[in-house]
Amino acid sequence: METRVTLERAIQIACATPMARVMERATLDDARHRVLATPLASLVDDPRFDNSAMDGFAVRASDCDRSGARLKIVGTSQTGGETPPPIARAEACRIMTGAPMPEGADAIVMVEDTEADDEHVTVHGPARPAYIRRRAENLSKGQEALPEGALLSSASLALAGTMGHGQLELIRRPRIAVLSTGDELVEPGTELQPGQIYESNSHALSSLVEAMGCEATRIDSSNDSMDELRQTLDSLSSYDAILTSGGVSMGDWDLVRRIMEEEGEVAFWRINLRPGGPPLFGTWKGTPLFGLPGNPVSSLVVFHVLVAPWISKSLGYHEEMGPRISDRVSVRLEDDVAGAPGKLCLRRIRIRSHNGELLATTHTHQGSGNMHSMVAHNGLTLLPPDTDGKAGETIDALWLR
Ligand code: AMP
Ligand code: MG
């Protein structure tokens, strides 16, 4: 077991025990917010044929070089209709947006620039080749347009459809159990007895698990008893991973740490991080397990900096296009922020965009129990160990989505 590791080392150790990456086939309807397991190439040219970008008339540009040219209308090109008739000199074909270009035509005149009766059209405006959308100008058949590991959000779902895919190979959502531990914890909405507090971590962690493309199951919190904890952990063997919160510090009641040391396998315990120093990672009878700190802010920030990268790497998410819950950015500090001796410091900051620059302020009490500070802020500093941030300086940060 390693202890007091850097965050980079912690990620590296955890990534040596990834979750299984399983593929499954699904329809486009079932692919929303899911992740592609294979790259997707187009089954068709896009557009499939030269077509008009405007409602108007398909013409020969050379017939329209003077205003007032009068052309004979030989037919109509409709979307989804028959192949339009070819046009010859001094002829035109009515055309709708998206309808195929007739043979012989090389430009479009917008309907607004014409006057027409049933047989003839008089052209008052320009005839533009640029109003033709050319076959395959967006994508050619066989071209790979969506990479493996891409999140299928709105535009990528539509693109998969454009490319002709009714079924896709997706990454099966791994099932992750979220277990909070502590004698003091009770479900929100119930009455509190002396010494009890509402359990909240499992809600934040479950929503982060889902935002990372996995399925979260909240397990009823476990009391601080070795027997109960063992029984609960044993009941989670069908999950792909387990996240616990609480019970990983130095105290005698920190039973997640104890049970993992005595009966599980611990790969590392404690990271040089503030807040969020005590986490551990290991396996419980073969299942990867993150023991996150109990302090509400700590458990969340550790998810952001440690668990999210592990999920991403385990499942082979695309670096830019995969699911993610934060962006690494540079921000200019407007307030001083204190760093931490020997530890990477994750202060809560509020990031806003101003004149093309990201500015960061900080306010409210930053205690690791203060969940309000996570709501009032939308970012975390990445202050290297032994480094304070001074107002005016530019530093690295995570912008939380
Ligand atoms: P622990 O790491 O178990 O010592 O917990 C540290 C602090 O976080 C204590 O004040 C706990 O009451 C609190 N805490 C632990 N787990 C949770 C939870 N699931 N929801 C809210 N607070 C918690
Ligand atoms: Mg506890």
Topology (SSEs and partners):
Blueprint: E1 2-5, H1 7-15, E2 23-27, E3 40-41, E4 51-52, E5 56-59, E6 69-77, E7 91-95, E8 107-110, E9 114-116, E10 120-123, E11 132-133, E12 144-146, H2 154-162, E13 167-171, E14 175-181, E15 185-186, E16 197-198, H3 201-211, E17 215-222, H4 226-234, E18 241-245, H5 255-263, E19 265-271, E20 273-274, E21 280-284, E22 287-292, H6 296-315, E23 326-333, E24 344-345, E25 348-354, E26 357-361, H7 372-376, E27 379-381, E28 394-400
Parallel strand pairs: 1-19, 6-7, 14-17, 14-18, 15-16, 18-22, 20-24, 23-26
Antiparallel strand pairs: 2-13, 3-12, 4-11, 5-7, 5-8, 6-10, 9-10, 19-21, 21-22, 23-28, 25-26, 25-27, 27-28
Helix pairs in contact: 1-6, 3-6
Give the terminus-to-terminus CA distance. Answer: 33 Å
The biggest sheet amounts to: 7 strands, mixed
Number of strands: 28
Strand order of the largest sheet: 1-19-21-22-18-14-17
Helices, by number, come to 7
Radius of gyration: 30 Å
Low-confidence spans: none
Unique ligands: adenosine monophosphate, magnesium ion
Into which percent range does the helicity of residues fall?
10-25%
Mean pLDDT: 97
Secondary-structure-derived class: alpha/beta
Instruction: Estimate what percentage of residues fall within beta strands.
Output: 25-35%
Shape: elongated
